[in-house]
Design a protein that fits this description.
Layout lengths: L2 E6 L3 E8 L2 E8 L3 E5 L2 H11 L6 E9 L2 E9 L5 H10 L7 E3 L5 H8 L19 E9 L2 E7 L2 E3 L3 H12 L3 E4 L5 H11 L8 E2 L3 E5 L2 E5 L3 E2 L4 E4 L3 H18 L3 H6 L2 H15 L17 H7 L11 E11 L2 H8 L7 E2 L4 E2 L6 E2 L6 H19 L4 H20 L10 H24 L2 E7 L2 E6 L3 H12 L3 E14 L5 E10 L4 E4 L10 H14 L5 H6 L1 H14 L10 E4 L12 H11 L9 E8 L4 E3 L9 H23 L8
Parallel strand pairs: 8-11, 11-16
Antiparallel strand pairs: 1-2, 2-3, 4-6, 4-7, 5-6, 8-9, 9-10, 12-15, 13-14, 17-22, 17-23, 18-20, 19-20, 21-22, 23-24, 24-25, 26-27, 27-28
């Protein structure tokens, strides 16, 4: 089956078509258009300026955005001319009076969308992905250079033979998955080239530090090779959902797979919305100008809320069922027809839990754009059991749907509007409260709840409860997990922590949230203790069984305390992320000590980068590389080990105490 797997080029678009192991590249001339609306006077002035520009054409016409029809100029040109024309409009002072549409759109997304094409197009959602030759290249490096390289997870010493193997793997593959953290892939490529092995010419981008959602991040240089699809294995979407997930994101967003790997899930959703607009002849604004409507202060406090999060009573509970609204916020958008052009304060149907009203007479843009994404994800969720490819597709779409809600309130979102964001959360709170009341009506006790999930105990009819919740809220809800027992832990303030719990499912597997075993900044030896502790309680079906294993838990704790210094030194490595330059740190914390260590060896760390170190002397700020360390600070690591004990000690003590009494 012939599939488009990539697109390159600017004014001439090259489509990469894959069929039975062969790639055919077809070139297409591309002359997109932009649309500019404004007063007749300003449009006439603009047209006079355009008459002086070679290589473009324009005409007066009428097109529509999400709100209705607009009269203006449709200007056709080469892709490379678009932003120059937009800048020229700003220079002549008309940007304050004119509104531009369909500019600033990725050319490949637009080309594919205008022609109804799809990357990795399949005849059915159940079809398999193409088997494109791919390889994963990685390695490790220290101050002396490369210490190891790997091909598809197989680690090797950096010898002439292994470099030859890497070169051969790259030349025989179409998709190159690489890790360039600490410039390791560039060092591998430089060594291969220096040894005279044949390689495609490669280009490296620049590295940078940036801030996202209050967190300092670092972007390693991106690598590109002609004729190859180069994807960083550090990509969030790839790390969460693999190649199958990336194929799915490219398929749904109309972005080429390399770009799909580099953007956030939110940008992928925004691209899907832009693609949907192009396919349906709806103008895409260059700059958003539908600002938030004025509201009284009391209205802001009432509407500007998030989801409901309950605080559980710490302790262990038996026979618990977790129910979950399926993709709650995207479902609300689709089921309640929420879109910038359908929502308001007057006319239409009242939205539950909110002072807003919605025009139900026409299908809104957002429900139309997100409908297929939601349906596709719910279908994957229903058939993912035992199918790794579907599981990865499902994971990718889950992230896209999670961010689709946030983008409705993002100030620069092309099709966002804060009133839609507020209505979504208001309906979500109403649906959550409705589900709680219905659960109690059906004979259940609510133990805990977070935004779209409830943990229930009781002997009511779960099928009847779920059916009534669906009917009342119009949102699908399912049983997510069933537990023999579940323990909710205390937070630092001594109260129940909403996000820290450990539940034993009826099949003997565990669901763990908020424990050290899930943290990236915790040493491996302490996390391994928790893995072994889980095995102790795997066969426990009730609180009495849990209590009966207290002796084995204590024995395991003593073993780790006794043998701590005999563990492999790599087990003490701490993933340390620095957030600023060394001179900007005011205290001599672990981050500053790490930066000082690397700087003294001539290898500066950029803000946002993560490196692994072993702490040899915390008091004096001595850290070392895991492979070169001479020892550990035992007291420093002892605190980590004892922290890993705490949750399981609490589990046993909860089993020893009285059963938590729930109100009738």
């Amino acid at each position: 089956m012939r599939q488009i797997i990539n697109a390159t080029g600017t004014d001439v678009i090259t489509l990469w078509e894959y069929d039975e192991g062969r790639i055919t590249r077809r070139k297409y001339s591309f002359h997109p258009w932009i649309f500019v609306s404004g007063s007749e006077y300003d449009l006439e002035r603009l047209s006079g300026e355009l008459d002086l520009v070679r290589g473009i054409s324009y005409m007066y016409t009428t097109r529509r955005n999400v709100y209705g029809q607009l009269h203006g100029l449709e200007i056709t040109m080469r892709q490379s001319q678009i932003m120059g024309i937009i800048d020229a409009i700003g220079v002549i002072g008309s940007s304050r009076k004119l509104s531009a549409y369909n500019a600033g759109i990725n050319q490949h997304l637009r080309f594919m969308s205008e022609r109804g094409l799809s990357f990795f197009g399949t005849g059915s959602r159940y079809d398999t992905d193409p088997e494109i030759p791919s390889v994963v290249i990685g390695g490790k490096t220290d101050f002396s250079g490369l210490t190891s390289i790997s091909i598809d997870g197989k680690e090797m010493a950096p010898t002439g033979t292994s470099f030859s193997d890497v070169a051969e793997a790259i030349n025989n593959s179409t998709i190159i998955l690489y890790s360039n953290s600490r410039l390791v892939f560039q060092k591998i490529l430089n060594r291969i080239s220096g040894m005279g092995y044949r390689l495609p010419y490669y280009r490296a981008g620049s590295e940078s530090s940036y801030e996202s959602y209050g967190r300092v991040m670092h972007k390693s240089p991106e690598i590109s090779m002609p004729g190859k699809i180069c994807i960083s294995s550090d990509s969030f979407i790839y790390s969460e959902s693999g190649l199958a997930g990336l194929y799915e994101v490219s398929r749904m967003s109309s972005l080429p797979i390399v770009l799909a790997s580099r953007v956030t899930p939110g940008t992928a959703v925004s691209s899907l919305e832009v693609s949907h607009a192009i396919k349906n002849g709806i103008l895409v604004p260059l700059y958003k100008d539908d600002h938030e409507k004025e509201k009284p202060a009391a209205g802001l406090f009432e509407r500007d809320k998030g989801g409901i999060v309950l605080q559980p009573d710490p302790g262990i509970y038996e026979n618990v069922t977790e129910i979950d609204f399926s993709s709650m916020y995207p479902s609300i958008i689709v089921r309640y027809n929420l879109s910038p052009e359908t929502i308001g304060m007057d006319g239409g149907a009242a939205l539950p839990g909110s002072g807003y009203r919605v025009d139900a007479g026409k299908k809104g843009f957002l429900p139309s754009a997100l409908g297929e994404l939601l349906d596709r994800r719910l279908m994957y969720k229903s058939i993912r059991e035992g199918n790794p490819v579907i599981q990865k597709r499902d994971a990718a779409l889950k992230w896209m749907l999670l961010t689709s809600f946030g983008y409705t309130g993002y100030k620069n979102a092309k099709f966002g509007r804060i009133e839609v964001h507020e209505a979504i959360t208001a309906i979500g709170r109403w649906a959550f409260s409705t589900a709680m009341k219905l659960a109690e009506k059906h004979g259940f006790h609510v133990i805990h709840g977070i935004v779209d999930s409830l943990w229930l105990s009781g002997d009511g009819d779960m099928g009847d409860l779920l059916k009534e919740i669906r009917e009342k809220t119009r949102i699908d809800i399912v049983v997510d997990d069933e537990y023999s027992w579940i323990a909710f832990f205390k937070g630092k303030n001594g109260l129940g922590s909403p996000g820290r719990y450990l539940g034993r499912r009826r099949d003997g597997t565990f669901k763990v949230r908020g424990l050290e075993i899930r943290r990236n900044d915790f040493p491996a030896f302490a996390k391994r203790f928790q893995v072994e502790a889980l095995d102790i309680f795997r066969a426990c079906k009730n609180r009495d069984d849990v209590l009966s294993m207290s002796g084995e838990l204590k024995a395991l704790e003593k073993k780790y305390l006794r043998e701590m210094t005999s563990f492999d030194l790599y087990d003490f490595a701490l993933e340390t992320r620095v957030s600023r330059h060394m001179e900007e740190y005011r205290v001599n914390n672990l981050q500053r000590a790490t930066m000082k260590f690397f700087s003294s060896s001539g290898d500066d760390i950029m803000p946002g980068e993560s490196v692994s170190v072993v702490v040899s002397d915390r008091k004096h700020g001595v850290v070392q590389l895991p492979e070169r360390t001479t020892g550990i600070d035992r007291n420093f690591y002892l605190r980590y080990l004892k922290r890993s004990f705490e949750s399981f000690d609490f589990l046993v003590s909860s089993a020893r105490g009285n059963q938590v009494i729930l109100p009738c």
